[in-house]
Structures are given as C-alpha cells and as structure tokens.
Amino acid sequence: MLEYEVGDIVTLKKGHPCGANEWEILRTGVDIKLKCIGCERMIWVSRMDFEKRVRKIKEEEKFVSIIHHKKKED
Fold first, then answer.
1. Which superkingdom (predicted)?
2. For the chain, N or C: smaller number of CB within 10 Å?
C-alpha cells in the first residue's frame, strides 16, 4: 500500500465532469478528501475506493504511474 500525503496531486481513473482530471489530496485517513484542480469542488472518497481509482501521482513536474512511484525518503 502506498502512502499518500496532504498536498499530493493525483489523477484518477475517470475525469471530473468539469473536464479536469487532477486532484489535490487535502486529508488522509480512513477516508480521503480530494479537491478538483479545475473547479475546486471537494469530495470524500473511502481509502479502498481511492486505491482502486488512483492512476498517477505528480512527482516534481511530471505525472508518474503509481506502479513506478517511489516513496519519499527522509
């Protein structure tokens, strides 16, 4: 299971009706709170549902598949 942090930008399997497909993580836990980058609408998604839907995560300036995502080392 990957660890997601507040402030991470991710893409999901399906885009938002506004046309954007980038989401910012606002809160993590059992449920995850996401904000659409396009229209700034906020949604709550269960972690299990989020894990199924997430496709890519933004590292520096490019999106990387979650399969190739490297954990941040302290």
1. Bacteria
2. C
